[in-house]
Design brief:
9-stranded mixed beta sheet, 26 strands, 32% helix, 23% strand, 538 residues, alpha/beta, single chain
Length: 538
């Protein structure tokens, strides 16, 4: 696999992109059933899917397995349009379940396995889930969910022993093979629920066109247009990043390796399976670099390291470049509502413009808007909005939120940023994370970037704390390297001359780790809640 490829198209309109997409589908509709059919027929004997548990499937085996599971779902009474929840960790059965649902016209509801029973009950009720496919370890949790719902839902379990209710995976997987359903590009394929940091989670409706479009966009943006790609997926499969990278790998004829993230085991898989491409958030990369230091592996075959979700500290980037000497680093920016992707960096721009999250992917239009919905000129900070074929259809059963988020045909990302002269995007903060101290805007990401430079600091999160005089003041939560102690005085001294006085934190809290979303992002809403619960004020 050579990196970079020559597939990137800068500034391409959505119309031109869709024309190209349909050509790749031989003039037919671009749907996930056709994607899978093309992938299976192209090279049936090639390795398509494997996991950290030793399961391996060729394209032909994967296609037949998906067809049988779909038949099992049909036998269980599930019809097109009905919602099926998937509550599994990262293994081949998740991928088989996912494909079997969406390629036969049913709707997948990927479930964050870290949620509590009441959170799950809300999602199951809101989505109208008709059937659940789950790992047996979640039996007790799902039993509690069903009690809260007050109704029975058929459950099928992977692993053993299975809970006292429901049936084993083998029953579902022994169904009669069934043909692809007649789905259209605007047919609903999946509902991905957001993390719900500002209230109840909202279900982003992802269509077949959203999925096939982002698949082709990622082929071109991430530079893996070769069937030689061996992709390791270590982010949770219930996260929308799976839709970015999993089916995309099968679309180009590559091999997909899935596993639950473990720094040492992930490195072992890279070495043993000849992985040449993977995605990780910076905190995962940091842990992997520490594990590599303890036990070196052969990482020379890696050609592409993709990252996103948080800024990359300079020292982590340097360590990644040292440990993956043959790899190109590429950063991406997106969210659930954009099927995961809006912008990706060009080759080497991650080094020349390390603060940029890249340029708009093919067929995507990015603008910066002020509070009055007016486009802002180059270099001015405003809300990042985006338009493209990968943007969700709306929020499930929430027309008011859909209208607000998709006003004028553009996705309101809730992120603040700006574009430079080269149309490179810079994300400066989440709108809700902007700190206003005495009328002056403070971008938490800027403060975090400076604190990151301290040699004892491995991770930092900056939030605003209510203040009776200034409205808000800056507070920092800091995680340090093992065995490294750092005081408030040392941190303040380090910031001298590096950042304006009004941007300096008034307090630092040393933590062992941070509350995180499924994608590994720090949940700042919980940090602010900690401050509120502790009654700290200045």
């Amino acid at each position: 696999m050579s990196i970079p490829s020559q597939t990137r198209r800068d500034g391409e309109s959505m119309e031109v992109f869709l024309d190209r997409l349909h050509q790749k589908y031989n003039g037919n509709v671009a749907t996930m059933d056709r994607m899978l059919d093309i992938a299976v027929r192209r090279n049936p004997d090639k390795a398509a899917l494997l996991d950290g548990q030793g399961n391996r499937l060729s394209y032909s085996e994967m296609g037949h397995a998906v067809s049988r599971v779909a038949g099992g779902l049909r036998l269980a009474g599930i019809i097109a349009g009905e919602r099926v929840a998937i509550m599994m960790r990262s293994h081949v059965y998740y991928v088989l379940a996912y494909y079997s649902i969406i390629t036969r016209g049913m709707v997948a509801v990927p479930i964050n396995v870290r949620l509590a029973a009441r959170e799950l009950a809300y999602i199951f009720d809101n989505a109208g889930v008709k059937l659940v496919i789950a790992d047996q370890e979640f039996g007790a949790l799902l039993k509690e969910v069903l009690v809260l719902l007050g109704r029975e839902i058929p459950c099928y379990w992977t692993g053993s022993p299975i809970p006292e209710f429901g049936q084993p995976w083998d029953v579902l997987a022994s169904g009669e093979e069934t043909a692809f359903d007649d789905v259209q590009e605007d047919s609903l394929a999946a509902i991905y629920y957001t993390s719900g940091t500002t209230g109840q989670p909202k279900g982003a409706m992802i269509t077949h066109l959203n999925m096939t479009a982002v698949g082709q966009q990622n082929v071109e943006a991430w530079y893996f247009d070769s069937p030689d790609v061996v992709e390791l997926e270590i982010s949770p499969l219930f996260h929308v990043s799976f839709q970015e990278f999993g089916p995309t790998i099968h679309w180009v004829g590559g091999t997909l390796v899935v596993d639950n993230f473990s720094p040492a085991r992930s490195l072992d898989l890279i070495d043993q399976e000849g992985v040449n491409s993977f995605f990780a958030v910076p905190s995962m990369l940091l842990l992997m670099m520490e594990a590599q230091k303890q036990q070196p592996r052969d990482l020379s075959r890696v050609r592409l390291v993709k990252y996103g979700g948080a800024p990359m500290p300079a020292e982590v980037m340097a360590a990644v470049r040292r440990n993956f000497p043959g790899a190109q680093l590429v950063q991406g920016f997106g969210q659930t509502e954009s099927t995961g992707m809006i912008a990706v960096t060009w080759p080497n721009e991650v080094y020349d413009f390390p603060l940029s999250t890249g340029r708009a992917i093919s067929g995507c239009n990015i603008r910066i808007m002020d509070a009055g919905e007016n486009p802002l000129p180059t270099g001015n900070v405003g809300e990042i909005v985006a338009q493209g074929p990968q943007i969700m259809a709306g929020y499930w059963q929430n027309p008011s939120a859909s209208e607000e988020t998709l006003r004028g045909g553009f996705l309101r990302t809730g992120d603040l940023g700006y574009l430079d002269e080269g149309q490179r995007l810079y994300v400066v903060d989440r709108k809700k994370d902007l700190i206003i101290r005495g009328g002056q805007n403070i971008y938490s990401a800027e403060v975090e970037g400076v604190i990151y430079g301290h040699p004892a600091v491995t991770e930092v999160a900056v939030v605003g704390q209510p203040d009776p005089i200034y409205g808000e003041v800056v507070v920092a939560f800091v995680r340090t390297r093992p065995g490294n102690l750092v005081t408030t005085e040392e941190l303040n001294q380090y910031l001298e001359g590096r950042i304006a006085i009004y941007k300096k934190p008034i307090a630092y809290y040393i933590v062992d780790d941070f509350p995180r979303t499924a994608s590994g992002k720090v949940r700042k809403v919980e940090l602010r809640q900690r401050l509120s619960d502790s009654g700290k004020s200045n």
